[in-house]
Task: structure prediction
Amino acid sequence: MAYTLNGVNLGDVETERCPTKSEMEVIGYPMGGSSETEAIDIGQVTMRITLKGVFVGATRAEAMNNFVWPIKALENGNQSTVVFHSDAWDDTTTGDYTDGNIDVKVEIFDPEISVENGVCVIRYTLELVESV
Result:
């Protein structure tokens, strides 16, 4: 398969980071060491996915119309959840992501557009938040 976002091919994904953050209430005590710190898990967990990649289009119009604008259109102030397919997660055999599909919303899309050797090259960073 291929890396996709809402069915849009993401080209060559070079790196994928997906840290999960658990909200903790951390309580330290005066003159106490790290081993004496209490951390209370308040139950909120967030996963942010950061992709860095390259999309190459035969022309600038092709790259813009088939890649940039369909992704930018997702960030509209009233986002719906869309499916991100990760080839890295596609091979997972346990947990929630065994099919490689994760429901997300777009937090940041940062494309850098250039023409190299007659083709349009878009280097990008895409930040997604797992969401319902």
Summary: DSSP finds two helices and eight strands in the chain. The helical segments are 60-72, 87-90.
